[in-house]
Amino acid sequence: REAKKNHLASMIYSDLNTQKEFEYEILSDFKNALNNGQIYLMYQPKIDLKTRKPIGLEALIRWNHPTKKQIKPDQFIPSVENTNMIHEMTETVFRWSLEFQKKLNDKGIELPISINISTKNLYNKDFYNRMSKILKEYNIKPSLIELEITETILMENPEDSKLILDSFSNEGYRIAIDDFGKGYSSLDYIAQFPITTIKVDRFFTKQILINPTTQHIVKATIDLAKQLGYEVVIEGVEDVETADLMQKLGGQSAQGYLFMRPRGEDELITYLNQYRDE
Ligand code: C2E
Ligand code: CA
Ligand code: CA
Ligand code: CA
């Protein structure tokens, strides 16, 4: 029995070890990757459910690692978040999004671009000032930038979150609650923050067609969110039936593979050009 226990312990230990090695390698590679072209952004459009036309974009980070191939954000962002490199990462994402926004504006296209914000960013006292400094380098309206923040982040420290989000909101930034419904907070709680948008988590979208309870929950959430003046975005829509039902339940906009997977800048420009001057 003791031998079995030791075996188990060593298995867990070696698992932890490989995980640690992976994290160590990731982090030492990440430093350079941010500046050598391995890391870049893809953008996924947000679609108006009534017109089925694009009304916004979300920037999503990608990493083409030379030996580990494509590493998903879920595999490296949690590690990066444990270090100070998360600040450089978010600032770089912001910069790249502003550059793309500028490129679009020059072509006569104006759609808000959303970027994802980490806990460590929000609770860093220099965050707002550093972001403002970057924004000033570009001639872009803050209303064309949306910050996506999960409800879990807000709940960690509501007082500080409110202060910093108020600064961004007063400047004119849009603020979205990402993955809404996953973190057990209520809209009543969310209402104290200067929010413009609620993004309904894919967890609900996935089961909406087959689960009547989910339909009730989503309907109630949408009704209340709209009464509070928020735009409701449905995440992860993969089929027409789901899009239609979400529209019927009152959802205003959606993202998902049905409409478009995250794509590079050139493909997006071609895509967005189809909708110009219509
Ligand atoms: P998220 O912010 O909830 O982003 C949505 C994720 O769902 C993206 O995965 C997107 O590609 C994926 N998705 C979109 N439509 C569909 C669909 O119809 N079906 C399915 N199954 N998935 C869909 P991705 O790009 O792998 O990003 C995963 C997470 O990594 C993001 O979740 C976000 O939390 C984080 N992330 C991505 N980019 C950044 C970034 O620049 N900064 C930070 N801090 N986090 C990021
Ligand atoms: Ca997001
Ligand atoms: Ca999300
Ligand atoms: Ca998510």
UniProtKB/TrEMBL annotation:
Domain EAL: 23-276
GO terms, molecular function: cyclic-guanylate-specific phosphodiesterase activity
Lineage: Bacteria, Bacillati, Mycoplasmatota, Mollicutes, Acholeplasmatales
Protein name: EAL domain-containing protein
Entry keyword set: Membrane, Transmembrane, Transmembrane helix
Domain of life from the UniProt record: Bacteria
Span covered, complete protein: 265 to 542 of 546
